[in-house]
Amino acid sequence: MHILVLQHARCEHPGSFRRFLREDGHSWTAVELDEGEQLPPLDGFDALWVLGGPMDVWEEDKHPWLVHEKAFIREAVQERGMPFLGLCLGHQLLAEALGGKCGRSATPEIGVLDVRLTEAGLESVFLDGLPEVFKCLQWHSAEVSRMPDGARCLATTSECAVQAMQWGPRAHSVQFHFEVEEDTVSNWAAIPEYAAALRSALGPEGESDMAAACKAEMSGFLRHAERVYINWLQTAAQTGADPN
After folding, report:
1. What is the pLDDT of residues 34-50, one digit of tens each?
2. How far apart are CA 185 and CA 84, in angstroms?
3. Alpha carbon distance 107, 213 (integer Å)
4. Helix, strand or coil for residue 118?
5. Which amino acids are annotated catalytic?
6. Which residues, at least 6 apart from 40, have a Cβ–Cβ distance to it below 8 Å?
7. Is the pTM of the predicted complex or chain greater than 0.85?
8. Does 12 have pLDDT greater than 70?
9. What does DSSP say about strands 171-174 and 164-167: parallel, antiparallel, or unpaired?
10. How confident is the model over 115-120, as a mean pLDDT?
């Protein structure tokens, strides 16, 4: 496969998924939208991944390219039926591109926290093999407040109802992060918006506390990332009606 990856901060890349793609012989092209790079034609790509970023989906006046990105996602997913993976901001952009709604979180989720699979999540191909409750990295202050028509919620928490979402057989997204690596926290903490949220939630030692929590869970993060990557490839091969 050749995957188009939309990025919104240079250090917020596919993370641990890069190794899995490389080992399997898949290739990917990154477009850095926050730096003014242009969206390419979808022809020639087999799938679309949309990653996280410090901006909010509604900040279209500040980041006009968000308007074009949402239309681009809608074309890829709704019109072309391309396999899709969205992480954090990419999860929210998928929701809005398909007619859902996002807003500020009543309680931001920042830290290594538990996520619980819903009944639909337990039955899904995308999250197959994951425990019903598992730990993941959360770093968000916005959330999907209304899913688009036809979407299913695959995972949830008490503070954020829509933690994972499926639309059709081949579009999947998560609010949290599977792609964590050893340097993820230090890299993301260099982004001013992320650093401020981290200090607000966890105090002046937030970066070191978050790094330590991630280090303690790193083997689980990598195991879950690889499983979800394999599952996503299975969903990418599906056609027609949703098998679930």
Report:
1. 999 999 999 999 999 99
2. 25
3. 20
4. coil
5. 88, 177, 179
6. 4, 29, 31
7. yes
8. yes
9. antiparallel
10. 98
Helix (H) or strand (E) holding 225: helix 206-236
As a whole number of angstroms, the distance between CA 115 and CA 156 comes to 6
Listed in sequence order, the residues at least 6 apart from 142 whose beta carbon sits closer than 8 Å to its beta carbon are: 56, 57, 92, 102, 103, 104, 105
- Distance between CA atoms of 100 and 23, rounded to whole angstroms? 36
Task: Outline where DSSP puts E strands in 79-219.
Answer: 84-87, 101-117, 133-146, 151-156, 164-167, 171-174
Q: Which of 166, 162, 172 is nearest to 50 (CA)?
A: 172
Q: Which residues, 6 or more positions from 137, have their beta carbon under 8 angstroms from its beta carbon? A: 111, 112, 176, 177, 180, 184, 214, 221
Mean pLDDT of the chain: 96
Collect all residues with Cβ–Cβ distance below 8 Å to 100 and sequence separation of at least 6. 144, 145, 146, 147, 148, 151
Both tokens assigned to 212? 């330590």
Q: What is the pLDDT of residues 150-194, one digit of tens each?
A: 999 999 999 999 999 999 999 999 999 999 999 999 999 999 999
Beta-strand runs (E) in 8-132 = 27-32, 47-50, 84-87, 101-117
pLDDT in tens, 59-83: 999 999 999 999 999 999 999 999 9
